[in-house]
Write a structure and sequence with these properties.
Blueprint (H helix, E strand, L loop, with lengths): L4 E6 L5 E4 H6 L3 E8 L5 E11 H5 L8 E6 L4 E5 L9 E6 L2 E2 L9 E3 L12 E7 L28
Parallel strand pairs: 1-10
Antiparallel strand pairs: 1-2, 3-4, 4-7, 5-6, 5-10, 7-8, 7-9
The structure holds the ligand Nc1nc2c(c(=O)[nH]1)N[C@H]1C(S)=C(S)[C@@H](COP(=O)(O)O)O[C@H]1N2 and molybdenum atom (MO).
The site of the ligand Nc1nc2c(c(=O)[nH]1)N[C@H]1C(S)=C(S)[C@@H](COP(=O)(O)O)O[C@H]1N2 has 12 residues, from loops.
Length: 158
């Protein structure tokens, strides 16, 4: 944890970086969300605690419209910046009142509950803001660029 950081890089005037302690000192909030997996399961009313992306993006000057979340281990996933703002996305570090289990992305994962769960990068370490939408790991392998479960956007062409 001494070496863990969360960064916002890419098309920004000034890159940002928080250590674990700095992240934990930011305002955090608990939230309840339904999560949807592309393989057709949904889990209702899951309870989380995390820092809103609004808090992290506050004061970041950018003209970028897209982001790529990147993780320890090399996983990436792309999202429109609009899907990360206005109270829709968090860097989550507690699930159901407990520190997030490493199996589920601990110490921290991105959580974007209104999109399919593959967008919620586990072991997340940062966001790269981009002018163009750049497919991440699953999106390069046939998954939909946006992944709205209400539109069943599972695969390319859905
Ligand atoms: N870093 C990372 N994050 C990831 C993945 C992954 O392989 N690596 N898989 C994604 C997919 S496809 C799903 S369905 C969810 C699974 O989250 P869970 O293990 O907490 O159920 O994590 C997403 N985030
Ligand atoms: Mo998945």
């Amino acid at each position: 944890m001494a070496e863990w950081t969360f960064s916002i890089v890419g098309e920004v005037d000034e890159p940002k970086r928080w250590t674990w302690d700095e992240l934990r000192r930011l305002q955090s909030e608990s939230f309840t969300a339904d999560i949807h997996c592309v393989t057709k399961w949904t889990k209702l009313d899951t309870r989380w605690m995390g820092v809103s992306l609004d808090t992290l993006l506050d004061g970041v000057e950018t003209a970028a419209e897209f982001a790529v979340a990147y993780s320890d281990g090399g996983y990436t996933t792309n999202l429109p910046l609009d899907d990360l703002t206005d109270g829709k996305a968090w860097i989550a570090f507690e699930y159901d009142g407990q520190p997030l289990d490493p199996e589920h992305g601990g110490p921290a994962r991105l959580l974007v509950p209104h999109l399919y769960l593959w967008k919620s990068a586990k072991w997340v370490r940062g966001l790269s803001l981009q002018n163009e939408d750049e497919p991440g790991f699953w999106e390069s392998n046939g998954y939909h660029l946006r992944g709205d479960p209400w539109r069943e956007q599972r695969y390319w062409g859905d």
